[in-house]
Amino acid sequence: MTVLSVQSIADLIPADMDALALKISMARGLGEIMGAVRRTARRLVGADGITFVLREDGMCHYADEDAITPLWKGQRFPLENCISGWSMLHREVAVIEDIYADARIPHAAYRPTFVRSLVMVPVREDDPVGAIGAYWAHQHRPSPDSVDILRRIANSAAVGMTNVALINSLAAAKEEALRAKDAVILAMASLAETRDSETGNHIRRTQHYVRALARAAQTHPAFALQLSDAVIDLIYKSAPLHDIGKVGIPDSILLKPGRLDQQEFAIMKTHAELGRRAIADAQQHLGVSSTFLDLAQEIAHTHHEKWDGSGYPNGLKGSDIPLSGRLMAIADVYDALVSERIYKPAFPHDEAVAIIAAEKGRHFDPDLTDIFLTIADTFRTIYNRFGDGPLQLQTA
Ligand SMILES: [Fe+2]
Ligand SMILES: [Fe+2]
Asked: In the sheet where 49-56 sits, what is the strand order?
C-alpha cells in the first residue's frame, strides 16, 4: 500500500502538468492563465504563496497571487527593485533559502509579509514577459524537482501568453477590417449623397427603418426563415448603398429643382442597375464573394420594384422581388413622403402611413405593409431622432 501511494504521488505531477498545460493552451485571456497557474503551482510545489508577475513598461506588475496572507497583488515596482525584475532581466531562476541573507531582495517590501524563502522563475526565458514566484513562510530549501516544476509551468504560461497575444491581435485585425469596411460603405454612400438633392440623413434613417421593419417581420411565418439576426444586421449595414447608382446620373437630372420629365425619369431609373453593377464590379475586382455585398447589390437593384410588377428596372412581381428590396421599398418611400423635396412639401406622418397602407399589394408586399402598420410609430421616432444634418453612419 505504501509503495502504491509513493508511486501515485510521482504519477500525479505529470498528470497535473498535462492538465495545466491543456488548460493554459485553451485559455482565451491572461486572467485564465494566471488563475490556472497560481492554483496548480502552489499545490504542486507545496508553497505558501504564488505570485504571477507581468513585465509592463519597465515595471513588475504583481498581477495575481494565491497565498496564505496577502502579498503585493495589484502593486507595481521598478524592474531593478525587485527579485522578479532581477529574474526577468537576468533570464535566470532565483532560488533563495533565506531572503534576509540575500542582497537582491528589497527587505522592506518583504517585512510585512510571511515570506522567508522563495523561488522566482522567468516566463519565457529567452525574452521574459513575466515571472512566477513561489514563497514559503519557513526557511526552506526548494528541491530541484520543485524548481523544475515551476520552470515547466512558466514554459506553459509563456506559450499560453503568446496564444492570447495572437488571439488579441487577430481580433484587433478583424475589428480593423470591419471598421475599414464600414468606412468604405460610408465613403461610397456619402459620395452618392453629396450629389443627390435628397437630405443628408435620408441614408441613415432608411437604414434604421429597414432594420426596424425587418426585426418586426422576423416573427412572421412568411419571413422568419429568411431573417436571422445576422441577415438583419447585414441588411442594416448594406442599406446605405441602395442609391449608390445615383453617382452615375447627370447633375442636370439628379439636382433638377422640379419634377422630372419622362425622358429624365427614364435616365433616373437607371440608378438601380448602375448601383447593382458598381457593387458587382467591386466584388469582382476584389475577388471576394460576401453575403454583405450580395445583399447590397440586391437592395440597390430591387428597391424600386413593385409588388404588382409595375416597378423598375425589371418589373419583378410579388415574391420574385428579393425580400431585402421589398423591405427597402417601404423604408425608402416612407422617408421620401415625410421629407420635404424641392418639388413637394413634407407629408405629415399619418398621411404618409395612409399612402403606404393604400399601396398594400400594389407597390408594397401586403404582409410587410401590415407589419409596417404595426410599427409605424417607430418610423416616426426614427425620423424625429435623425433630423437632417451631416451624414453619420451608425454601424451597430
Ligand atoms: Fe433609389
Ligand atoms: Fe433612397
From this structure: 76-78, 59-67, 49-56, 130-136, 117-123, 94-96
The DSSP call for residue 344 is B
Does the structure show a pLDDT above 70 at 85?
yes
What's the CA-to-centroid distance between 158 and ligand 2, angstroms? 54
Q: Output the CA 2–ligand 2 centroid distance in Å.
A: 83
Contact 213, 268 (CB under 8 A): no
CATH class, domain 195-385, is mainly alpha
Residue 205 Cα, ligand 2 centroid: separation in angstroms?
10
**Whether 185 contacts 240, CB under 8 Å:** yes
* Gap between the Cα atoms of 22 and 16, Å rounded: 10
CATH topology of domain 2-168: Beta-Lactamase (3.30.450)
What residues does each domain of the chain span? 2-168, 195-385
Average pLDDT, the chain: 88
pLDDT of residue 4: 39
Who contacts 58 (Cβ-Cβ below 8 Å, separation ≥6)? 78, 79
302 alpha carbon – ligand 2 mean position (Å): 12
Query: What pTM does this model have?
Result: 0.59
